[in-house]
């Protein structure tokens, strides 16, 4: 009977398992776990074992049981709750499909500053003169950078529900024109 070699999935060390010796649960090099789906076991014998032998050796090595034991495991489970989870998954999939369709319709799709998901456009807000006090820098000789009324497009993140605002295209143009004018003092 030939020795088995287990390769540690973490440090890639080859750990030789002698026949009849119980397999290590932890890597002697890096002390990480060796069992379960992360482990690759390679036999170093001259002959190829049959598939049945491979499966039974793997099952014994990793403590797996056969399919016949599955009914015993399922008896204690409440499978009716699975329908509730399935309906929640379906609702989440419909939510994601709807968000994707809305994003496809948008001309501008900003990223959320919090979680980097794409934001959906939720509407436009018009800011009136009574609810806005403009900044009037000296450079503009008492003129405002932005005069009310102006409109903003509201965006909402469908993942973290952060709200974001962007000035409307026409108001951006107005600001660009206002800030690109030469001040009165510079013209003389």
Key phrases:
three-stranded antiparallel β-sheet; 188 residues; 32% helix; 5 helices; alpha+beta
Q: Strand order within the widest sheet?
A: 2-1-3
Task: Give the % helix.
Answer: 25-40%
Alpha-beta content class: alpha+beta
SSE succession: EEEHHHEEEHH
The biggest beta sheet is recorded as:
3 strands, antiparallel
Biased composition (Acidic residues): 45-60
Region (Disordered): 42-67
Task: Put the structure in a nutshell.
The protein has helices at 51-62, 70-75, 80-105, 169-180, 184-187, and strands at 4-7, 14-17, 40-43, 120-127, 150-156, 163-167. It has 188 residues and is of the alpha+beta class.
Folded structure, characterized:
The structure is a single chain. The model has no long low-confidence stretch (mean pLDDT 78). The chain has helices spanning 51-62, 70-75, 80-105, 169-180, 184-187; strands at residues 4-7, 14-17, 40-43, 120-127, 150-156, 163-167. The strands form 2 sheets. Strands 2-1-3 form a 3-stranded antiparallel sheet, with no helix packed on it. The chain is 32% helix and 17% strand. It is built from 5 helices and 6 strands. It is α+β, with helices and mostly antiparallel strands.
Could you give the topology of this structure?
Elements: E1 4-7, E2 14-17, E3 40-43, H1 51-62, H2 70-75, H3 80-105, E4 120-127, E5 150-156, E6 163-167, H4 169-180, H5 184-187
